[in-house]
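Researcher: Good morning. I'm working through a list of sequences from a screen, and I'd like to move beyond sequence-only analysis. For each chain I'm collecting a predicted structure so we can compare shapes side by side. This is the next one on the list. No need for commentary yet; just the structure.
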Amino acid sequence: MRLPGDLGYLTYCLNIHPTQTWSEVREAIAGPLCSVKASLCPDAPFAAGLRFSAETVRALEHAEMRAELKAILRENDLLAVTVNGFPYGPFHGTPVKDQVYQPDWLSPARIDYTCRLADLMADLAPPDHFASLSTVPGTFKPLADGADAAIADGLLQAAAHCSTLRERTGVTVAIAIEPEPFCFLETIAETVDFFERYLFCPAAARRVAEVSGLSLDVAASALRRHLGLCYDVCHAAVEFEDPAASIESLRRSGIPIHKLQLSAALRLPEVTPRARAALAAFDEPVYLHQVVSRRGERKLCREVDLTPALARDAEADGEEWRIHFHVPVFIADLGTFLTTQDFLAEILAIHAKEPISSHLEVETYTWDVLPSELRTGPVEQAIERELRWVLGRLRA
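Model: Good morning. C-alpha cells for this chain:
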C-alpha cells in the first residue's frame, strides 16, 4: 500500500508462500495476497512483494503466461514495485540451508537470472516507475576468499543491463544487495568498504560503460541508481549493528537503500540451560539460522547455524545470542527469550522522521517452520497483523 507523505510503499514478501512454479505464484497472488489487500487496502492499489524462482522467470517468458500474470495484477489492483531475487530455486518444503546463495555472484547463472528478472519487472511495473530487486550478498562466506573483484564484476554486468533496460523502457530496476550473517557481505562496515572500493568508483563506471555501450558519464550516474542495498532489519540486528549509526553510515557514504526488509530475529539476552533447551524447537532442517554471540560488548563468535551453536552447551552460558530466525514482527517476548522487535521499532522511527527507502517489505518467510504454538490461525491473518503493527509504529 502507498504510505502517506514520502514514506513509500509497504508490502510483504511472497516468499512466505510456496512460489517455485508459476502455478504456485498465481495461487499466492490470487489467494493470500488478494486477501491481505482486501483487509488492508480494499479501495486503492496495493504494492506486491513478488518472488519468482528462475524456473518461473523462464516460464513467464512465454507470452501467454506473461499476459496472464499482467492481467491478474491489473484486475486485482496490484502494483509490481519490488521482487525478491535472492532464492534462485526451491525455497519451501526441502532443505535450503547454504544452497540459498547458489548460484552466487561468481556464477554466470546468477547474472543471467538477475537480468531476466529485471526484464520481467520492467514489463510488469507501471511506466516510468522504480522497481527494486533484492539479491544475494555476493556468496557464502566460506567461498568468498579473494572473490571481491569477481563478485563486483558480476554485479556491474547486471547494473549495466539495468541501465540499458531503463534507456529502452523508462523503468528503473535497482539491484538491492542484502547483507547477511556468514556471507561475503555481513556487516554495514564491510558493505560500505566494498561499495567504495569496487562499485562506486571510476573503474566501475568504466566497466559499466564497456558492457552497456553507454557513455562514461551515463554509466557513472547509473551506479547509484541501479546498485544499492536491501537493508534486512533482522540481519542487521543479528550482527549487533546500531540502528541509527548503520543508517547514517550508509547515508554518509551515498549508498542508497533500495529496499528495507522489515523483520525480527530471535534474541537471548543471556544463554542459560533452560534457554538452550527452549531453542531446540527452532533448530529445524530447512533454513540456515546463523548465530552471533557476545559477552558484554565483545563479540565472541559467529556460528553458521543453530545446531553447532547449541552444541557448545554450557560453554555458551552467560553470552547474549542473536539468531537469524525470522519471527513475526508483532512478537516481542517469547517467554524464555525475546526478539529484536525493539531494533525494528527504532528503524521504523528513523524512517518516519527521515525516510530510509521507498520500498518497505515485511519478510517472515519462516512461517512453515515456526514452532506450532506461534502459528496460530491462517497465514493471511499473521501477515495482516504484521502489516498493521508496522503501520502503528509509523504513526506513533
